[in-house]
Amino acid sequence: MTALLQVEGVGKRFGEFAAISDVTLDLRGGETLGLIGPNGAGKTTLFNMITGFLKPDAGSLRFDGAAIDRLAPAQRVARGLVRSFQKPMLFPALALRENIAMAARQHAGRGLSWWGGARATRAANDEADRLLIEAGLQHRAEARVADLAYGEQRMADLLIALALRPRLLLLDEPTAGLAPDEARRLLAIIRRHDEGTSVMLITHEVEIAFAACDRIAVLNLGRLLCLDTPAAVQAHPAVREAYLGALAA
Ligand SMILES: Nc1ncnc2c1ncn2[C@@H]1O[C@H](COP(=O)(O)OP(=O)(O)O)[C@@H](O)[C@H]1O
Ligand SMILES: [Mg+2]
């Protein structure tokens, strides 16, 4: 497997504070890579650099073999590097189906224009319906996103991201605040799509990472402790000491 994403010696400081120091990792095509670590480890900071919302002070990023350091977030999305959007990116006054269909049309290259033809509209609506059925949300298709419950909105974030057909889907704590059955359903959707889509899944819930990921990267104090299979990570002495000690006890 060749690397889809290569993070090479990346660092980020906030003033004197080094939030990320010299992190090198690769994400292989087709894999689900977990990114775990205690609160404040630098997970979101690394994620923001990969998606282009923060500029690294050091190092480089390559996606599908090409440097992406100079690309704006939207340009990275156009190459297939998609983060789940979270509420501000939804159109709250529009129906859930329309929100997902707009993302599907964006993928089809017609952007947000409404006049791309009846066929494109129908295809996008069909795609939205497929995703809604998969998520068990078809009964909410006509609901305004603003009227959705919190768990439904988090699922909507994911469906919109999937409608963009990402090559790499980046999810930052997608199950935060969800009830256990909602979290299970969301992870099942992610897994069902992980054949064609590589995934980077940030979570501080180690059980989720161990259950859902092919490999796991462990961050601690801004540094990469290890990157290995779930079993190897679980057995790693430095990881146990820094992070899993409480679990082992
Ligand atoms: N914009 C910022 N300015 C200053 N410090 C920040 C900023 N963003 C994050 N940090 C700090 O960097 C560290 C890593 O944060 P973060 O990447 O959010 O960690 P995680 O997502 O692993 O919980 C934390 O100590 C946090 O307080
Ligand atoms: Mg975070």
Automatic annotation (TrEMBL):
Keywords of this entry: ATP-binding, Nucleotide-binding, Transport
GO MF terms held by the record: ATP binding; ATP hydrolysis activity; L-isoleucine transmembrane transporter activity; L-phenylalanine transmembrane transporter activity; L-valine transmembrane transporter activity
Protein source organism: Teichococcus deserti
InterPro entries documented for this protein: AAA+_ATPase, ABC_AA/LPS_Transport, ABC_transporter-like_ATP-bd, ABC_transporter-like_CS, BCA_ABC_TP_C, P-loop_NTPase
Gene Ontology biological process: D-alanine transmembrane transport; L-alanine transport; L-isoleucine import across plasma membrane; L-valine import across plasma membrane
Domain ABC transporter: 5-246
Domain of life: Bacteria
The name this protein goes by in its record: ABC transporter domain-containing protein
One Gene Ontology term, aspect cellular component: plasma membrane
Stored SUPFAM superfamilies: P-loop containing nucleoside triphosphate hydrolases (SSF52540)
Pfam families recorded: ABC_tran (PF00005), BCA_ABC_TP_C (PF12399)
